[in-house]
């Protein structure tokens, strides 16, 4: 049964320490429950896993909690965008929450996830290895295979989930990355979140074969009902085992997005409102988990409703906190363009780092550089900033540097040093 | 906090002595502020350097909106006609949204024209060319049924069909290559990059195939392709969607690059680009699509290689293009109030530069400020600086000042984004320093 527990919430990383909420709906009950997935899995060149999924009350309630939070957050993002507090492009994930929570349940914090721009909710669920925010469609998949390569290289028994959409499935770089992963047996799992529309183009108008789980050809694939969190969990677990032994596998998550491609897209010019509301009624991921919870008597309807209200409050608090945060100062303009220690001359002439290193640091650095250049030996790592021996130019001595900086004074961001 | 200095490329406070020229006059002490009035109509001779394919049957009309008409016939002969009664007074765009023009009562022959937004002007140009030549087709992501992510191709697919306005999958490298292949065999495709940044995926096709095939095939294949799309820094679109590809593409031999900035030149350049037998990259800007202007009803095509005189002046030449044109005009307002007389030229043609117009201006003013949105390293401004220095060094009284964006990925934070891009106040400061 649900219990009252106080739990600190790691909501959004910058606010982690300060947002607290009284959380109902947690339990430590781990009696196994077996649930059948809504649909069977379909395999391509592989025996699909069983439809019976083992879960626990604890897990089901956590699914509900996380998905309710994600849903609420996306709706809030919608209003914030319309209020012009979120700018640029805003791609919302509501409808697809099951993919994120299902995946989280199946993997460890050491596994990597990389995704593109429809990524707000993936972040909410995961551990430290979540790489997100890629704007160029499909470009994150080769990166994902690179993560898998590093995992294989360091033999750490972890996997990478490289996520992409049905639109990105037609990118050539995907097939290049898949070929390499398969060639070298990399622990890469390519997850196609098929929400059936690439912005305004339906999948049947963009792909000759919309069976994305088969597109790997030589790589096995699995088609999963992406609106069923338990099916996603089963598939991800299965895929992880497979990838660690046999190399890449493609998972196609059959899912749906309620919003348009982004907030600039109404989402109704290329599909009917009936379709959207139909899916909401029949396949909504949160509703499905709710039904499971109620049918197994893990919570009452009222408790679930109360919880949703709390989530709303929590998100509102987070928004209030975000509104209070200061905008970055102009001195941050060059932060992180380069890694520090790249080279004193480069730093100053490009004005790429506002915070001037101290004289001691510069002197030390020069000393090290001069030694390295005279020895012509192995590369050195200056404050973790990379090897200088690679660079062809000679770092000037102190006086020379001052002179060169004097000439470039208009390019130096901070004239006070001279 | 003022971050102006890093933007000023190189400047020394002592002006170069004039060696070969008659007296220079320095800017006068500030007279009372005078409103921006259109300069007197000058008979402005236009150097036309259209590339004509003598084997084609196209007759190219380059109708310059100010004073001169040139008709270039397919046999290469040139007839010019000065038609002063059709000219319109030079217009000054002083703010980002051009206000409605007062009708020029003097010209009886010109019709009042019609008002539209820049993306509509692009569409009009595109539609007229598709109507005129059945080989013209469009391909890109969501250009057909969706109507284009910026509505440039809205309504064309129902009119011309799915093959002529082709919705491609998200495969920039391949559909650009496909367009080039189609162009080699006689079609005239227009490739739309949903955002210019996506065309980086097609860089190999654009560089090796598009740019070089005419050369490497010994002239056997021409690539009459137009590659267009919105680029530039928008409103907090993030680093990957705020790219200025003109600086990356400018070295590719064999292509032409133009940047439109008003509905008038957008339509004219679109038509010219489609009619050109060379590959043309047409750079549009995300923030300029909703500019409104009144354009002529009659058909017109602009010259691809020509710069546009936005505001004639005497003291300093300000060269700019695309969105920075509006920042420059905003700065020009301030400068005029302070007593300066800047000459503003929208270079429009990014490759090749219109050194004729630019040169004439430099010879007149002897001072140059370049204002661009590219990054400082390797941008259009850098090339233009080199070009002007090489060709007009003797006419310069001071080193060229090049104002460009900072060499940083464009930040999402609004305040930081403003700092990366040149602002009108920085332009004013640069001109004041230059003209001291």
Automatic annotation (TrEMBL), chain A:
InterPro entries in the record, alphabetically?
A: DH_E1, PDH_E1_Alpha_Subunit, THDP-binding
Q: Where is this region: Disordered?
A: 399-418
Residue stretches making up the Dehydrogenase E1 component domain:
65-127, 130-328
Keyword line: Oxidoreductase, Thiamine pyrophosphate
The cofactor named in the record is: thiamine diphosphate
A Pfam family recorded for this sequence: E1_dh
- The name this protein carries in UniProt is Dehydrogenase E1 component domain-containing protein
Protein source organism: Rehmannia glutinosa
From TrEMBL, chain B:
Top EC class for this record: oxidoreductase
Gene3D superfamilies with a match to the protein in the record? 3.40.50.920, 3.40.50.970
Composition skew (Pro residues), residue ranges: 25-40
Q: Which InterPro entries match?
A: THDP-binding (IPR029061), Transketo_C/PFOR_II (IPR009014), Transketolase-like_Pyr-bd (IPR005475), Transketolase_C (IPR033248)
For the Transketolase-like pyrimidine-binding domain, which residue ranges apply? 116-291
Q: What is its EC number?
A: 1.2.4.1
Q: Which keywords annotate this record?
A: Oxidoreductase, Pyruvate, Thiamine pyrophosphate
Q: Does the keyword Phosphoprotein apply?
A: no
- Name the catalysed reactions: N(6)-[(R)-lipoyl]-L-lysyl-[protein] + pyruvate + H(+) = N(6)-[(R)-S(8)-acetyldihydrolipoyl]-L-lysyl-[protein] + CO2
State the needed cofactors, names only. Answer: thiamine diphosphate
Pfam families on file: Transket_pyr (PF02779), Transketolase_C (PF02780)
Map out region (Disordered) in residue numbers.
Answer: 13-40
Read off the SMART domains from this record: Transket_pyr (SM00861)
What is this protein for, i.e. what is its function? The pyruvate dehydrogenase complex catalyzes the overall conversion of pyruvate to acetyl-CoA and CO(2). It contains multiple copies of three enzymatic components: pyruvate dehydrogenase (E1), dihydrolipoamide acetyltransferase (E2) and lipoamide dehydrogenase (E3).
Q: Which NCBIfam families match?
A: PRK09212.1
Q: What is this protein called?
A: pyruvate dehydrogenase (acetyl-transferring)
Q: Which organism is it from?
A: Rehmannia glutinosa
Q: What lineage is on file? A: Eukaryota, Viridiplantae, Streptophyta, Embryophyta, Tracheophyta
């Amino acid at each position: 049964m649900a219990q009252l527990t106080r739990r600190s919430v790691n909501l959004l990383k910058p606010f982690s320490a300060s947002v607290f909420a009284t959380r109902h709906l947690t339990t430590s009950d781990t009696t196994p429950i077996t649930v059948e997935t809504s649909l069977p899995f379909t395999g391509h060149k592989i025996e699909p896993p069983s439809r019976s999924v083992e879960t626990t009350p604890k897990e089901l309630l956590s699914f509900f909690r996380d998905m309710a939070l994600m849903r609420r957050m996306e709706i809030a993002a919608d209003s914030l965008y319309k209020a012009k507090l979120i700018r640029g492009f805003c791609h919302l994930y509501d409808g697809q929450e099951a993919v994120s929570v299902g995946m989280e349940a199946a993997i460890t914090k050491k596994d990597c996830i990389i995704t593109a721009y429809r990524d707000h909710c993936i972040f909410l669920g995961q551990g430290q290895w979540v790489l997100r925010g890629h704007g160029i469609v499909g470009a994150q998949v080769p990166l994902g295979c690179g993560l898998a390569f590093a995992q294989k290289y360091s033999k750490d028994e972890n996997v990478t989930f490289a996520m992409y959409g049905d639109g990105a499935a037609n990118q050539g770089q995907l097939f290049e990355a898949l070929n390499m992963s398969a060639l070298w047996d990399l622990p890469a799992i390519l997850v196609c979140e098929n929400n059936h529309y690439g912005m305004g183009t339906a999948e049947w108008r963009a792909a000759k074969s919309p069976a994305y789980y088969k597109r790997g050809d030589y790589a096995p694939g699995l088609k999963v009902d992406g609106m069923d969190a338990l099916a996603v969990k089963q598939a991800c677990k299965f895929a992880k085992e497979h990838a660690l032994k046999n190399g890449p596998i493609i998972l196609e998550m059959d899912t749906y997005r309620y919003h348009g491609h982004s907030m600039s897209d109404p989402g109704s010019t290329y599909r009917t409102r009936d379709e959207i509301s139909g899916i909401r009624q029949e396949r909504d991921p949160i509703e499905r988990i709710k039904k499971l919870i109620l049918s197994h008597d893990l919570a009452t309807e009222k408790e679930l409703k109360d919880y949703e209200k709390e989530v709303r409050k929590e998100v509102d608090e987070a928004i209030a906190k975000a509104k209070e945060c200061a905008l970055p100062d102009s001195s941050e303009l060059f932060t992180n363009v380069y890694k520090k220690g790249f080279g004193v001359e480069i730093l100053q002439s490009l004005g790429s780092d506002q915070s001037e290193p101290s004289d001691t640091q510069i002197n030390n650095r020069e000393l090290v550089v001069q030694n390295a250049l005279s020895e012509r030996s192995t590369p050195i790592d200056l404050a973790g900033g990379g090897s200088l021996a690679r660079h062809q130019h000679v770092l000037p001595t102190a006086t020379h540097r001052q002179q060169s900086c004097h000439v470039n004074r208009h390019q130096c961001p901070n004239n006070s040093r001279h | 906090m003022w971050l102006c200095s890093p933007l000023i490329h190189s400047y020394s406070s002592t002006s170069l002595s004039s060696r070969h020229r008659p007296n220079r006059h320095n800017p006068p002490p500030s007279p009372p502020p005078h409103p921006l009035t259109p300069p007197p109509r000058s008979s402005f001779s236009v150097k036309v350097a259209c590339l004509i394919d003598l084997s084609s049957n196209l007759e190219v009309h380059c109708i310059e909106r100010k004073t001169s008409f040139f008709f270039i016939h397919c046999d290469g002969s040139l007839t010019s006609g000065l038609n002063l009664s059709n000219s319109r007074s030079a217009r000054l765009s002083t703010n980002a949204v051009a206000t409605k023009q007062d009708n020029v009562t003097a010209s009886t022959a010109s019709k009042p024209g019609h008002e539209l937004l820049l993306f509509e002007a692009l569409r009009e140009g595109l539609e007229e060319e598709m109507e005129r030549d059945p080989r013209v087709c469009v391909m890109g992501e969501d250009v057909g049924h969706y109507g284009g992510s910026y509505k440039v191709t809205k309504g064309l697919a129902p009119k011309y069909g799915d093959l002529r306005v082709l919705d491609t999958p998200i495969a920039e490298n391949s559909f650009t290559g496909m367009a080039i292949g189609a162009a080699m065999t006689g079609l005239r495709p227009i490739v739309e990059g949903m955002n210019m940044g996506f065309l980086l995926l097609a860089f190999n096709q654009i560089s090796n195939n598009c740019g070089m095939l005419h050369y490497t095939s010994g002239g056997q294949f021409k690539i009459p392709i137009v590659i267009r799309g919105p680029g530039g820094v928008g409103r907090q679109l993030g680093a990957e969607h705020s790219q200025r590809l003109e600086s990356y593409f400018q070295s590719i031999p064999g292509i032409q690059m133009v940047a439109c900035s008003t509905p008038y030149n957008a339509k004219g350049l679109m038509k010219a680009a489609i009619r050109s037998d060379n590959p043309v990259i047409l750079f549009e800007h995300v923030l300029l699509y909703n500019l409104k202007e009144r354009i002529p009803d009659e058909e017109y095509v602009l010259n691809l290689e020509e710069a546009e005189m936005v505001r004639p002046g005497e003291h300093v030449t300000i060269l700019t293009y695309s969105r920075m044109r509006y920042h420059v005009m905003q700065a020009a307002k301030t400068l005029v109030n302070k007593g300066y007389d800047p000459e503003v030229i929208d270079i429009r043609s990014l490759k090749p530069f219109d050194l004729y117009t630019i040169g004439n201006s430099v010879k007149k003013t002897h001072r140059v400020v370049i204002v661009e949105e590219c990054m400082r390293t390797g941008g259009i401004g850098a090339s233009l600086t080199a070009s002007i220095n090489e060709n007009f060094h003797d006419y310069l009284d001071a080193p060229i000042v090049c104002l460009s964006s900072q060499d940083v990925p464009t930040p999402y934070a609004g305040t930081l984004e403003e700092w990366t891009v040149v602002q009108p106040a920085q332009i004013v400061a640069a001109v004041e320093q230059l003209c001291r």
